[in-house]
Amino acid sequence: MEATLELAAESGLSACTFEAVSERSGIARSTLYRHWKNSSELVADAIKSQSIERVAADTGTLRDDMLHWMLELGRALEGSTWGAMVPQLVAAASTDPNMEAIQRRNSEYHRNIDIEIVERAKRRGEVDEGIDSYHAAVMFTAPIFYRYLLSRQPIDARWITSHVDRTVALLRPARGSLGEGA
Q1: How far is it, in rounded angstroms, from Cα 44 to Cα 105?
Q2: pLDDT at 181
Q3: CA–CA separation, 22 vs 16, rounded Å?
Q4: Per the count of CB atoms within 10 A, which of 1, 16, 48, 177 is most buried?
Q5: Three-state helix/strand/coil letters over 90-158
Q6: CATH numbers and ranges of domains, the chain
Q7: How far apart are CA 172 and CA 168, in angstroms?
Q8: How far apart are CA 56 and CA 146, in angstroms?
Q9: What end-to-end distance do the CA atoms of the chain give, in Å?
């Protein structure tokens, strides 16, 4: 899996042929063919191998839950083989339906964690009930991927903390909407 991700990060997903992975990993091509029908399946499994099942931390506040998760995402993007491979996946997804499906599943996985955190905050009264949880989740994650993929700016802890704090402030219920004076 690591050899596949390294190849993808270095040379693009098209470089992740069974021959190249075999050469990099020392695993026989025949073994790879026994486990995967094609290189797209191998790439999909390599990406999944980097995504351990995570449960969004429940610290008791939207800010701290989301900060914990966004800091983890930032570290993964900037400091892992998976993060180095993400731009390659995005590029390949624009022309390859198999890679598009992989990217979609990867995006849904991360977005569902964001949505879970927002829904929990709604139940605690920290987020205006009228705000769509999907859109709120995207408000947290999209700027991180924008900075990483498009503007190529750092996504360090200081920036992430500022971003989370500003986004949390936008999502707070309006004054008086919590039944004050009732």
Answers
A1: 9
A2: 43
A3: 10
A4: 16
A5: HHHHCCCHHHHHHHHHHHHHHHHHHHHHHHHHHHCCCCCCCCCHHHHHHHHHHHHHHHHHHHCCCCCHH
A6: 2-47 (1.10.10), 54-171 (1.10.357.10)
A7: 6
A8: 22
A9: 58
